[in-house]
Amino acid sequence: QVQLMESGGGLVEAGGSLRLSCVLSGSTFSIHAMGWYRQAPGKERELVATIYSDGSTNYAASVKGRFTISRDNAKKTVYLQMNSLKPEDTAIYYCRLGLGVYWGQGTQVTVSS
Question: Is residue 54 classed as helix, strand or coil in its secondary structure?
Answer without folding.
Answer: coil
